[in-house]
Design a protein that fits this description.
By secondary structure, the chain is of the alpha+beta class. The protein has helices at 26-41, 125-138, 149-166, and strands at 46-48, 58-61, 71-82, 85-89, 99-103, 106-112, 118-124. The protein has three helices and seven strands. Strands 1-2-3-6-7 form a five-stranded antiparallel beta sheet. Strands 4-5 form a two-stranded antiparallel sheet. It is globular and about 45 Å long. The structure holds ligand K1U and zinc ion. Ligand K1U is lined by residues 43-48, 89-93, 129-130, 133-134, 137.
């Protein structure tokens, strides 16, 4: 299975809002499995289709220590959130950058599985943070947008410099 190339900030394609998935077919199942392999290989605990330049509402996540609890969420929707926590976040599209972000502590997310069945996941801790982070990707938002304009400017300059050096 191929590892998919991951878009890097500040690539403008990361700002594209993803559209709802209307058909769950073998092509979508293939994409979900390729995304999962890409996430595990990175390594990461989540990946949104936006990050692999597919603008459909699909995310994969596995925040377990044993890396054997893969979640594949089609058309994920926040149903409920409560509490708040501040924790360190990273992003595979913003390599080498970590910062503290405030998020809800617990979330309930509704979604379709790859058989088209409606499911919900109740999450707290890292999985909760990860699902919130990935759903923002689908809306074209990146975690650095929670940071100050000065930090965003510095991060943008750092990544543009890295891109020039590696080109
Ligand atoms: O969306 C992404 O870019 C994936 C991102 C998800 C995420 C990480 C931390 C907080 C919120 C969301 C990552 O997976 S970055 C890599 C990472 O944090 C990690 C990788 C391996 C093991 C544990 C963490
Ligand atoms: Zn991310």
């Amino acid at each position: 299975m191929p590892l998919l190339p991951i878009l890097r900030y500040p690539d403008p394609r990361l700002k594209t809002p993803a559209t709802a998935i209307t058909e769950i077919d073998d092509e979508l199942r293939r994409l979900a499995l390729d995304m999962a392999e890409t996430m595990y290989g990175a390594p990461g605990i989540g990946l949104a289709a936006t990050q692999v330049n597919v603008h459909k509402r699909l995310i994969v996540a596995d925040a377990s220590e044993t890396r054997d609890r893969l979640l594949i969420l089609v058309n994920p929707e926040l149903i409920q959130s409560e509490g708040s926590r501040v924790g360190e976040e990273g992003c595979l599209s913003v390599p080498g950058v970590y910062d503290k972000i405030e998020r809800a502590e617990r979330v309930v997310v509704g979604y379709l599985d790859l058989d088209g069945n409606r499911q919900t996941v109740e999450a707290e801790g890292m999985l909760s943070v990860c699902l919130q982070h990935e759903m923002e990707h689908l809306d074209g938002k990146i975690f650095v947008e929670h940071l100050s304009p000065l930090k965003q400017k510095r991060i943008r300059a750092k990544l543009l410099k890295q891109a020039r050096v590696t080109a």
